[in-house]
Amino acid sequence: MLKKLLLLICTGFSVLSFCQSDEVLFIGNSVTYFNDMPEIFKNIAASKGKNVSITTHTPGGTGFVNHVDDPTLYQKIKSKNYKYVIMQPGTGESAGHSYPVSVTAERGRKIRDSIRKYSPCSKIFLYEIPYGVPSANEYNVYFTFQQKIKDSVTKMSNLMQVEMVPAGESARNYYNSSPDLALHGSYNDIHPGPKGSYLVAASMYSAIFQDHVFPSTFYNGLPQNTAENFQNIADQVFFNNPAQWNSNVFHLHSDFTAGINGTTVNFTNHSANYTSVLWNFGDGITDPSLNPVHQYASPGTYTVSLTVNKNACAETYNKIITISSLGTMDQQVQPELTFYPNPVTDFCYIRSKEKIKNITIYDMAQRKINDLKNLHVHDIKLDFSTYSKGGYIISILYESEHRESISIIVK
């Protein structure tokens, strides 16, 4: 029997249009300003359709111990309504060496409270810095110290009740497989080189916007393959376990998915830290329910928005939903997928009209080789350069919970 099915193609985007600018404040020292990392972040964001304006307070050799009593910083805090603020503790503070973590966190809270006073709806992040490599034979020392920084900044994040940018973990991820000093200009120097600053900026983008930085067309003068490798590392580190970085633990966050069952659209709320919600289905109907089910009267393109509120702050997330009448047999709608190249030499690309949720890679004996979770992307680049030659199966789980498999050959 023929049945009319609905085809939903969803694209998420911010409520702010590109002509509007999000104010971003970076507080730190030379580890932040080297190679003009905030400007790299700004240009990556622009390549992804986001318009940000940058303000920096990054005197060399400073930390929270200096910033907490710096009138110049407080003047900058007062001067604008910031959407995002990134706070970098000093090098010794980051590892808990120069002061106990609790003392640094208390100083950070004083700065945070001033930010909240003048930008009450701002999202504040701690920047986990990459450590320097002491020498070619001391990567083990680097890994040990990077772990101390991670542990200290995580504790600081909980004490200050702000979220994290795991840039140090992105650097550790790179050096785990490539101990080649590519991220730093020289041994025994904590300052990042151009590649290191690009990886940090990519990590900033992934964590702050909770959006995959790959693919970004802004490479900051790096070879495309190098820049895209750093983009994928930043995405992998953040999206493999967002909860580890306290993502959406302290900030107001709006998000939802849309599913289809016959002629009915099921909306699932994935927001955080809100006290009330309001849905606008784009057809003149609104609903304050948490997880509404909505019936569209006719085909068309609708902008569905979910606005979440807490205190005097609000955040809106939108999806464009296209509903079409299709005279087809009663079957599940298949996502449109492009995969290339096959056979694969080093890298392959997947592009889908429906957002991909998870990707699992198996060998031909059905052993799980890799598991990429919480992707929520239309496009992804997969690295097979370290895989043995032979056949593999890529299992793709879409946001609609439909699953599709691709058989590939790695040459």
Automatic annotation (TrEMBL):
PROSITE patterns per the UniProt record, alphabetical: PKD
Source organism, top-level taxon: Bacteria
Domain PKD: 279-312
Leader sequence segment: 1-19
Pfam families: PKD_4, Por_Secre_tail
Keywords: Signal
Entries under CDD domains matching the protein: PKD, SGNH_hydrolase
Gene Ontology MF terms: hydrolase activity, acting on ester bonds
Cited InterPro entries: Ig-like_fold, PKD/Chitinase_dom, PKD_dom, PKD_dom_sf, Secre_tail, SGNH_hydro_sf
SUPFAM superfamilies recorded: PKD domain, SGNH hydrolase
Name of protein: PKD domain-containing protein
Native organism: Chryseobacterium sediminis
